[in-house]
Amino acid sequence: MIAYIKTQGAKIVKEGRHLVVRKDGGIYNTLFTYKLDQLLIFGNIDITHGAMVRLMRENIDTVFLTINGRYLGRLAAAEAKNVFLHKRQYHLLDDFDFGLRMAKSIVAGKLSNMSTLLQRIKRSKKEPVSGRKASEIQDLMPRLMKADNIESVRGYEGRATALFFEAFPKGFVEDMGFTKRVRRPPTDPVNSVLSLLYTFLMNRVYSAVRTANLDPYPGFLHSIDYGRYSLVLDLMEEFRSIIAETLTLSLFNLKILQMADFEIESPSQPEMEHPPAAAMPDVTADPIGLISMKEDDATQFDIPEQRIEESPPGANPSTGKYPVKLKPEAFKRVIDAFEKKLTTEFYYPPAERKMTYGDAVMYQANHYRKVVEGEVEQYQPVLIR
Questions:
Q1: pLDDT range class, residue 276, cuts 50, 70, 90
Q2: Residues 188-224: pLDDT tens digits?
């Protein structure tokens, strides 16, 4: 179970074998640690020493974020004991051929998924530009496979990502002000949601990497750097389109999120009136976000995060626009939609069974470990069809 705590001014305390979220003398939530896999804490929330000890003893991944979902850090539980696996990971950093092969596999998966998503936009929205950009991304694939160094691989990944975001706005039913990917700070509703979902996804991948007893730092596509979870960022690439980008389209196209659900962090900006609450549509019912457009056909299946410099408070220097953030109620709807997406099942041929998107993240981390240990020769990313 994944728990999200957002009640500002609350305190997480230990009571017996459980944790309780309290505020003003009332109990907001009870967390049963034996059910808890990950705890995400947003903003101004205190946690007692006893509660922290309980979380570490139960090896529960505990993540601290700002109120707007920006990653701050996490509680570090006991390190994995498999020193031989970690030694193997670091040894492979000096294996040029292995690193190049791994980076190519990761980028090939990302390119394929971006191209497939754009083709779906072309078919469902009748947008020819999406088809053209999808073809341009596919045209990069042979050149990627012939690349003889990782810098070239990174260049093709960057070019494909730029092409993808040129056509991505065509997938929205209404114009949401998105023209390009703006990371920090996001200056329109779509960028705000993308950044949040990427953060959620990164935390899921991190948890999967640690569960597989892998060291999260040594990666290949993302160069190693001080404090950078390069392996986590590598393994999240194939899931960006599968989870975050398709979910962003669904949230806006199904009217789960609208313009009034966002506010601009400007001293003089008045808040927009929020529409009346309504039952949230099933975000997983949007066919554009399925692993396969024929979800019941088990045969139709083949097997973005680098460090970004922080912008100073205020307007984004590249756009002159102020940061845009979700209002609290809308933030909760994004969390609910993300969790629903992660618990949606699809047929996964390598495992010869159905599994959830969340299970697939775990599966890929273990698949990567098998490649590192030499049990499997080639890393195969998950591809949408």
A1: low
A2: 899 999 999 999 999 899 989 988 889 999 999 999 8
The ranges assigned to domains in the chain are 2-75, 84-372
> Six-digit token pair at 311?
């912008």
The number of residues in the chain equals: 385
CA nearest to 331, candidates 40, 95, 47: 40
Q: How far apart are CA 107 and CA 368, in angstroms?
A: 15
CATH of 2-75, picked from 3.40.605.10, 3.100.10.20, 3.20.20.70, 1.10.1740.10, is 3.100.10.20
Classify 84-372 by CATH class: mainly alpha
CA distances from 175 to 1, 252, 253, 256, 377 (A): 36, 10, 10, 15, 45
